[in-house]
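Students often ask why we bother encoding 3D structure as a string. The short answer is that it lets us treat folding as translation between two languages. Here is a chain of 234 residues written in the first language.
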Amino acid sequence: METNTGYKYRVETHLHTCQASACGVNTGAEMAAARCRDGYCAIVVTDHFFNGNTAVRGNYTWDEKISLFMKGYQDAKDEGDKIGLDVYFGFEYNSNGSEFLIYNFGEEQLREYPEIMTDSVEKVLTNIRNAGGFVVHAHPYRDEPYIPNPGKLFPEYVDAVEIINTHNRTKESNQCALEYAEKYNLIKFGGSDTHWVNQEDGGMLFPKKPESIDDIIDMAKKGECEILGKQYLI
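And here it is in the second language, the structure alphabet:
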């Protein structure tokens, strides 16, 4: 966890917009502009999916819901293209308060998988990974009223653990997440879980600018990264 001065490319891996996350405060465009000003070269938009704190509510068809869900990401992507910020798609999947960041499982795959809302969490995560997706267990020890079983672990069904979440400032919970990752030899991730433009920095630093979300994953797998927010560990 020591600082490596060669790791200068800052990436936000956990970000919400108000278009798709009910807890979001700012639009995708506003979030992208803010993270660009903060010195990030890339962001991953990870809005809450329909089984979480979603802003997509109403009597819509599945395809209509997916189109509405994509608006926060697309808004951020359009702004990113204008200002030179790379914007990648992800989402935050919820199962009884346990939440997972999903990468490499895109819009068309979601359109083809409405059973994501009814399958067991184990089946969902298995199907996502079998399809080439990448699963990060987000803030696994967060203790909030909406989480009935904080600390419920899924080591056989995830690829990585968010060991530092700078929105989650309880050092003990971040430290437990670090120990979880180390116990099961899971990849270590970090994110700010940002919901508004002035939230504290978080995420990851890399030695080269990622050209894709696969680059982010590959460098994390190799340990070629530094996770921001070490002050939130014991």
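Translate back mentally: The chain has one domain: 9-232. Keep this in mind for the problem set.
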